[in-house]
Structure to design on (260 residues):
């Protein structure tokens, strides 16, 4: 069988596997979105605790962050799926297990992004909140966090893409995600076609969409701080130059209304 016949057979197999690949892709999207939402909540809570001057809040937060950053996502996934039931805590579904493992692991990494962004806010802003006798929750909510939010989005965007790729490990607990369906496609075609062609395109397109959405979110956050254009200005097409000013034969205008 020559190369062209082999590729034709591969695409025929891809057409047959299409519905399964689509279902696996949607499951990966759900894991990424829900896992990212949980990770963000955990990151904000642990990040605020780690940045607090209160040792009783800062200490436990540091222990939790370092523990989940220092252990493997795969180990945490196995622990939640196999060990927790031994203590009488059985989760309803493998999807819930995957979301919890992804959320806790990447939430610990995100907590450092939150804490670092809080400390990156200029000292003058912190001093102003002290001068106004603002409480810690009040100063964080009204002054510090809105400024830190714009700073932490690039780091959170990177973690979101890592979470997307990390979701591929959930196949080991029985979830038929996109990675699992790619492996089934590999059995019918080849590793090159399945992973290097279909898999790379699928994961790349999803990562590209997530990255673009995070860029828009960053632009919106900066605009609220007066540091950039609005989303409408970013998404609107570039205004065209008037025909008269763009005409190659027209002379440039000078102040006073005359021409050179």
């Amino acid at each position: 069988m020559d190369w062209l016949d082999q590729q034709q057979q591969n695409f025929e197999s891809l057409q047959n596997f299409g519905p399964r690949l689509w279902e696996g892709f949607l499951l990966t999207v759900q894991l990424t979105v829900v896992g990212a939402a949980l990770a963000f909540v955990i990151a904000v809570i642990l990040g605020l605790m780690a940045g607090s001057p209160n040792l009783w809040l800062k200490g436990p937060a540091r222990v939790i962050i370092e523990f989940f950053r220092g252990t493997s996502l795969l180990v945490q996934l196995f622990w939640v799926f196999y060990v927790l039931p031994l203590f009488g805590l059985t989760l309803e579904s493998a999807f819930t297990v995957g979301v919890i493992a992804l959320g806790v692991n990447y939430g610990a990494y995100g907590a450092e992004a939150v804490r670092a962004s809080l400390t990156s806010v200029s000292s003058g802003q912190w001093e102003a909140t002290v001068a106004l006798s603002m409480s810690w929750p009040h100063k964080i909510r009204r002054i510090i966090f809105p400024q830190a939010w714009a700073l932490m989005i690039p780091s959170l965007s990177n973690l979101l893409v890592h979470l997307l790729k990390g979701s591929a490990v959930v196949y080991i607990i029985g979830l038929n995600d996109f990675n699992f369906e790619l492996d089934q496609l590999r059995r019918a075609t080849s590793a090159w076609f399945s992973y290097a062609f279909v898999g790379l395109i699928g994961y790349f397109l999803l990562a590209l969409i997530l990255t673009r959405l995070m860029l828009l979110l960053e632009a919106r956050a900066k605009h609220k701080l007066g540091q950039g254009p609005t989303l409408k200005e970013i998404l609107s097409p570039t205004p065209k130059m008037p025909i008269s000013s763009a005409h190659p034969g027209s002379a440039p205008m000078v102040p006073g209304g005359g021409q050179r």
